[in-house]
Amino acid sequence: MRSRTNIALGLAATGSLVAAAPCDIYQNGGTPCVAAHGTTRALYDSYTGPLYQLKRGSDGTTTDISPLSAGGVANAAAQDSFCKGTTCLISIIYDQSGRANHLYQAQKGAFSGPDVNGNDNLAGAIGAPVTLNGKKAYGVFISPGTGYRNDEVSGTATGNEPEGMYAVLDGTHYNDACCFDYGNAEISNTDTGNGHMEAVYYGNNTIWGSGSGSGPWLMADLENGLFSGQGTKQNTADPSISNRFFTGMVKGEPNQWALRGSNAASGSLSTYYSGARPTVGGYNPMSLEGAIILGIGGDNSNGAQGTFYEGVMTSGYPSDATEASVQANIVAAKYATTSLNTAPLTVGNKISIKVTTPGYDTRYLAHTGATVNTQVVSSSSATSLKQQASWTVRTGLGNSGCYSFESVDTPGSFIRHYNFQLQLNANDNTKAFKEDATFCSQTGLVTGNTFNSWSYPAKFIRHYNNVGYIASNGGVHDFDSATGFNNDVSFVVGSSFA
Ligand SMILES: *[C@@H]1O[C@H](CO)[C@@H](O)[C@H](O)[C@H]1NC(C)=O
């Protein structure tokens, strides 16, 4: 604690607050972090401890990923080496504040999660690669059904106490389900009433509130309402966001709250709302409970998606000046995109996708009508079968950094997942279709290439009983079986039959 204070005072004396990390800045401003979560980097200049824990599929062991240096970017190479040849999940997001407010797999609440015990899933570790100042790091890619939580917290705001928070997010990854949140929620995983939450929300849900345009928007989840401003309705000063990296801030104190945001890669914060609490009963005073959630609503509503890179919660209502310094520090961290593929494909190529599982390696990914399956194909097969097993690589319909596979014999139709089974469907141009039809290409777990679903990066194209799925390495479905998983998700890409 002493060294942190010294850092803050030293920087205050020179006035160069931008050099300090976010939690040094909040500390200096008199509103210290009580939770600090970042898989991408340390959020204190002096922090050298673990940022997150990985759990790998091959043997179930875990490892901690730390910054490369004090206050630095995460050691992504350590993740790549630990996860080589297997799958990895982010099992803990550590709290850097010293209060042990770590984020763990969210447990069942009013709503159940998809795992075998009704809890939420953990995030796949490879879904959100980025660079910070040119150094690779991984964010937390939240698919529907994924969530993190801590109900046994220390130091977060309760009752009507003041607090602040920010989250750096992928502004292009969202949906309109409830609720991609980061912040203060119920300790019971259930809805205990208006004013029992105060969290950053990001997405284009319009059930309670909205901003200008068609979204997505930064809003505050105050429980039983996503608020873009004072009322529960539209606040046209809350803009639609199109930034790839976005800083969203929410803060509250007795009968006052604010919503502020900015491009996280440049520029300064704008205030979308600052004023009184909603007049609907229950929000003034607030009844905060202090649990911390990521990717879900307070009652464990888990239909939303989004990407979280870093965020904190503070004790006390941060000043606008403090928040401006934090935003400057985020910009200086230089978040940037990097390849989503470790084994890129060539867009426009016509390919075949060959099974490698011993005993099945005369089979290729093919389709029979709408069913995506594997079939035995060879140079002497009928032209129609050859065409069924031939795919054109297209730019990913849901994310241009990955790929979509268009059927050679049914142009305009693509491989997509639906209830985790692969299907061949015509592109209907919906956001859901495009995302379901987008796959990224990684170095094969055993050989060749392994394809993760863009929208569910913990799930990979797999053949099981000669049918195509997106499967996790162990899970609730028979096709998630860990037995044979690595072989079943390893395919050899070759030139097409037709
Ligand atoms: C959210 O955005 C998507 C993509 O533009 C759109 O299809 C969907 O209807 C929107 N949802 C709402 C509630 O506006």
How many domains make up the 3D coordinates? 2
At the first level of CATH, the class of the largest domain is Mainly Beta
CATH topology call of the largest domain: Jelly Rolls
CATH architecture of the largest domain: Sandwich
Bound molecules: 2-acetamido-2-deoxy-beta-D-glucopyranose
Number of strands: 33
Radius of gyration: 23 Å
Q: Could you name the ranges where pLDDT drops below 50 across 5 or more consecutive residues?
A: 1-18
Q: How confident overall, as mean pLDDT?
A: 96
Task: Identify the quaternary structure here.
Answer: single chain
Shape summary: elongated
**Main beta sheet:** 11 strands, antiparallel
InterPro entries: A-L-arabinofuranosidase_B_cat, ABFB, AbfB_ABD, AbfB_ABD_sf, ConA-like_dom_sf
Family: Belongs to the glycosyl hydrolase 54 family.
EC number: 3.2.1.55
Signal peptide: 1-20
Written description of the protein model:
- 11% of the residues lie in helices and 34% in strands.
- It is built from seven helices and 33 strands.
- Helix 1 packs across helix 2 and helix 2 runs antiparallel to helix 4 (320-332).
- The chain binds 2-acetamido-2-deoxy-beta-D-glucopyranose.
- Residues 176, 204, 206, 215, 431 line the site of 2-acetamido-2-deoxy-beta-D-glucopyranose (NAG).
- Residues 22-336 form the Alpha-L-arabinofuranosidase B catalytic domain.
- Keywords: Carbohydrate metabolism, Disulfide bond, Glycoprotein, Glycosidase, Hydrolase, Polysaccharide degradation, Secreted, Signal, Xylan degradation.
Summarize the structure.
The protein has two domains: 22-337, Sandwich (Jelly Rolls), CATH 2.60.120.200; 349-495, Trefoil (Acidic Fibroblast Growth Factor, subunit A) (Trefoil), CATH 2.80.10.
